[in-house]
């Protein structure tokens, strides 16, 4: 496969799936501008490292891995940022937050530990197969299955607890 063909296929894939890519990244960073920056950086990395895509049939898992890793890198860098006071904080442009309805499921998913949350999002919101998730996250297939099961159990408990409080 020649370089122009790979470029074209990456371009088409990114354009055709931009909404699901944005949704995935947004679940990590919860900020419009940050999510768009990560998307842009991921596209740059895809073209920079297109040689690592050995088989075009695996473009979905290959690109999702780039998105996930870029999101995690961003979160690690952000954790290192220490703000001194409110005045310093107000000097930074923090971007505009999305305003979604506060849905019980959405809230419960946000409160899940990261290891469970990403697997549930990839499986049920991005409709990826368990094998694809294992490849994207570079995890053993059984680890993904276990975390999916435990994450769903934690969601059930959390949602049932909230229902009983009402």
Automatic annotation (TrEMBL):
GO terms for molecular function: DNA binding; sigma factor activity. Residues 105-155 form the RNA polymerase sigma factor 70 region 4 type domain. InterPro entries: RNA_pol_sigma-70-like, RNA_pol_sigma-70_dom, RNA_pol_sigma70_r2, RNA_pol_sigma70_r4_t2, RNA_pol_sigma_r2, RNA_pol_sigma_r3/r4-like, WH-like_DNA-bd_sf. Residues 22-80 form the RNA polymerase sigma-70 region domain. Keywords: Sigma factor, Transcription, Transcription regulation. SUPFAM superfamilies: Sigma2 domain of RNA polymerase sigma factors (SSF88946), Sigma3 and sigma4 domains of RNA polymerase sigma factors (SSF88659). One of its GO terms (biological process) is DNA-templated transcription initiation. It holds the Pfam family Sigma70_r4_2. Belongs to the sigma-70 factor family. ECF subfamily. This is Sigma-70 family RNA polymerase sigma factor. It comes from Tissierella pigra.
């Amino acid at each position: 496969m020649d370089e122009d063909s790979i470029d074209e296929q990456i371009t088409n894939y990114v354009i055709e799936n931009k909404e699901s890519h944005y949704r995935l990244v947004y679940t990590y960073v919860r900020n419009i501008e940050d999510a768009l920056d990560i998307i842009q950086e991921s596209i740059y990395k895809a073209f920079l490292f297109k040689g690592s895509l050995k088989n075009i049939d695996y473009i979905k898992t290959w690109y999702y891995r780039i998105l996930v890793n870029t999101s995690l890198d961003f979160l690690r860098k952000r954790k290192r940022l220490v703000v001194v006071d409110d005045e310093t904080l107000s000097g930074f442009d923090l971007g505009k937050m999305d305003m979604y309805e506060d849905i019980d499921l959405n809230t419960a998913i946000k409160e899940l530990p990261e290891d469970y949350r990403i697997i549930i999002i990839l499986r049920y919101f991005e409709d990826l197969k368990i094998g694809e998730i294992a490849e994207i996250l570079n995890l053993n297939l059984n680890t993904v299955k276990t975390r999916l099961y435990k994450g769903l159990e934690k969601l059930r408990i959390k949602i049932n607890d909230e229902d009983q409080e009402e």
